[in-house]
Design goal:
The complex is a heterodimer of chains A (about 290) and B (about 325). Helix content of chain A is about 80%, strand content about 0%. In chain B, about 40% of the residues lie in helices and about 25% in strands. Chain B contains 13 helices and 14 strands. In chain B, the strands form 3 sheets. Chain B has a 6-stranded mixed β-sheet with strand order 6-7-8-3-9-10, with helices on both faces. In chain B, strands 2-1-4-5 form a 4-stranded antiparallel β-sheet. A 4-stranded antiparallel β-sheet of chain B has the order 12-13-11-14, covered by helices on one side. The longest helix of chain B has 17 residues. Chain B is elongated, with a radius of gyration of 26 Å. The chains are: A mainly alpha (about 290), B alpha/beta (about 325). Chains A and B meet through helix 1 and helix 6 of A and helix 2 and helix 3 of B.
Chain lengths: ~290, ~325
């Protein structure tokens, strides 16, 4: 794993990727700090982070698009498969390198609250709580990006899908107000989600029976639940969209609440998508 | 060293490798021979753990490549058909990564990198970007990564494809050199290449193992047999009578272009063609029938290859009746 980590890290700094990522993040946070902390003289650094969080829609795909897609394109994935390292070690090594690239600009940003504290009254616990949360949120988005990069050998396509997914996640709370909040709408949306899950299982395992079995069991459970208590589905779809939003949970920290459930959620998202990435790589071997 | 048992691979409904079984012994150079699409690369990918098998097993040094992948892969160095190179790196950086991934550290890593760089002769380009190297050098860098960690078995998938003639000779010489210290398995569809380098040849066709032997023995144990053509001053019945007394003869065909002169061709499974031609000569001489012409046609490895890998070999699943009918038609 350490060999992969060192190799990835070297490649990020050989190319422009790490520098572009860091520059974008520092630029948007610097711009936010100038607007909020300097011009408007607000002492809350967490507002700057909230303002800057939109930049993840662009910079996470830039960072993650090549991570596995490029290995496939230049057929170096064959080398990784033939080396005495596991796919889990490969994915964890790559992910750890991405986190380091992400942490370097974040380490610089973490000096801002201390700097501003020299000139005013900055409430550091909220600032650093939000910094910690934005680190975890970014780490979760990076995990999603790694998985999406593992689905294709085309970097551009990986970046495009990542932007769409992160953008949807960013606006999911706003969009939730426009989706159907009726029981029927929620049930249909859940059915679609179950079918998507079945398709994902089929893609990753190439096991049609397993995919159909999981989808059918979940659909049957959904129908049974809908039959027994349809009213409980009312407003479920908007609620799910809000709950799934990584950005919405970050806002809790900005509001000054150190939300442990959000941390657990971020860690779960990281684990889930890294697991899917490993499965996606393994699937190629079991083609 | 490597034990392949009942290895089978399906891509969807397509059977790429069909119940392949063979043993690879230590200290030889093995050639995987077969036409394009025969299943060579699929077999090699399964032997190195890059691809799962639909059925069967591969053990390397007693370790299962799928169950004990870590231990088994330590014993193998693999160069896929397309060298897996990171184009933006230099050979030195690339080899450092591969060496570290193979568990080498510190001075041992540096020593081995220098050793393989010297072995494959890429010292002069070790600091250049791989993207800027010629195809021959890229292939050498690929072989160098396979050599790191001193694996007992080196598996090379079509290492000479796309190279110019000089590069091909250089890579062949390198493979011969490697054969002194490692067990080498390499695939090719070029007969002369395999014949020149290998101690043992595995011929794969249509996913089957069609033959597995030394180049000399393969030539000797031809499926179609060596051939003898001769013309004699004798009648057809007399020739038949004379040949009936000789062993190792089959598929006799006679033509009588003019009265009292017979042209004949026959196949033989005799290991010594000269021995049979001597017997033939004396048999006709004792009868006082002169042999006007005598040609021996020793089948080459190419004949075996074409016979084993040709379309007819792929149709080996055809019903026996149909085959018999074909043979009758031929004889007629």
């Amino acid at each position: 794993m350490i060999a992969v980590w060192k190799h990835e890290l070297r490649s990020y700094f050989h190319s422009f990727t790490a520098y572009v990522f860091g520059a974008f993040l520092l630029a948007i946070v610097g711009f936010g700090a100038m607007l909020y902390n300097l011009q408007a003289a607000v002492s809350n650094f967490e507002y700057v982070l909230s303002f800057g969080s939109i930049v993840f829609v662009v910079i996470v795909p830039i960072l993650t698009m090549r991570v596995i897609a490029e290995e496939r394109r230049q057929r170096t994935d064959q080398l990784l498969y033939s080396l005495p390292i596991t796919t889990t070690q490969v994915v964890l090594g790559k992910y750890a390198a991405l986190l380091v690239v992400y942490l370097i600009p974040l380490a610089l940003i973490s000096l801002y609250p201390l700097l501003f504290a020299q000139f005013g009254d900055v409430y550091l616990p909220t600032s650093y709580g939000s910094l910690f949360a934005i680190f975890l949120m970014g780490a979760a988005l990076v995990a999603v990006g790694v998985f999406l990069s593992s689905l294709t050998e085309n970097q551009g396509l990986a970046a495009g899908i990542s932007i769409a997914v992160i953008l949807f996640n960013y606006y999911s709370v706003s969009l939730s107000e426009y989706v159907s909040s009726t029981s029927f709408g929620s049930i249909v949306a859940l059915a679609v989600l179950i079918l998507a899950l079945g398709a994902l299982i089929r893609y990753l395992t190439k096991n049609e029976n397993l995919a159909y079995a999981v989808a059918l069991v979940l659909l049957a459970a959904l129908c049974l639940a809908a039959y027994l208590n349809a009213e409980s589905f009312e407003g479920l779809l908007p609620a799910i969209m809000k709950q799934l939003s990584l950005f919405e949970r970050f806002q809790t920290f900005v509001s000054g609440v150190f939300d442990l459930t959000a941390i657990v959620y971020y860690l779960s998202v990281i684990t889930f998508f890294l697991f899917l990435s490993v499965q996606s790589l393994e699937k190629r071997r079991y083609n | 060293m490597i034990k392949v048992q009942h290895l089978t691979k399906y891509y969807g409904d397509f059977l790429a490798v069909d119940d392949l079984s063979f043993d690879i012994q230590e200290g030889h150079v093995y050639g995987f021979l077969g036409p394009n699409g025969a299943g060579k690369t699929t077999t090699m990918n399964m032997m190195t753990g890059c691809l799962s098998a639909s059925a069967g097993s591969v053990t390397v040094g007693g370790y299962d490549i799928f169950e004990d992948a870590h231990e088994a892969k330590r014993l193998i160095g693999y160069l896929p058909e397309q060298p897996p190179l990171y184009m933006n790196e230099t050979p030195a950086e690339y080899l450092r990564f591969v060496g570290e991934a193979k568990g080498l550290r510190g001075e041992e890593l540096t020593r081995q990198i220098n050793q393989v760089i010297e072995q494959v002769r890429i010292g002069e380009v070790r600091g250049r970007r791989i993207a800027a190297l010629s195809k021959g050098y890229k292939q050498r860098v690929g072989i160098a990564q396979a050599l790191l960690g001193s694996p007992k078995v080196i598996i090379l998938d079509e290492p000479t494809v796309g190279l110019d003639p000089i590069q091909i000779i250089e890579i062949r010489d390198l493979i011969k050199e490697l054969g002194r210290e490692h067990t080498v398995i390499f695939s090719s569809h070029i007969l002369s290449e395999v014949q020149a380098i290998c101690d043992q040849i595995l011929i794969i066709a249509h996913g089957h193992l069609a033959a597995f032997d030394t180049p000399d023995r393969l030539e000797q144990s031809l499926l179609s047999g060596n051939e003898i053509h001769f013309t004699a001053e004798a009648g057809a019945d007399e020739v038949r009578e004379l040949l009936a007394g000789l062993e190792h003869i089959s598929d006799l065909r006679l033509e009588e272009p003019e009265a009292g002169r017979v042209s004949a061709s026959l196949k033989t499974d005799s290991r010594d063609l000269y021995d049979l031609s001597r017997s033939l000569f004396f048999a006709f001489a004792e009868r006082g029938r002169p042999l006007l012409e005598l040609n021996l046609k020793k089948a080459s490895l190419e004949d075996i290859f074409l016979e084993l890998t040709g379309p007819a070999a792929g149709a080996s699943d055809a019903p026996e009746e149909h085959q018999e009918q074909e043979e009758e038609e031929k004889q007629a």
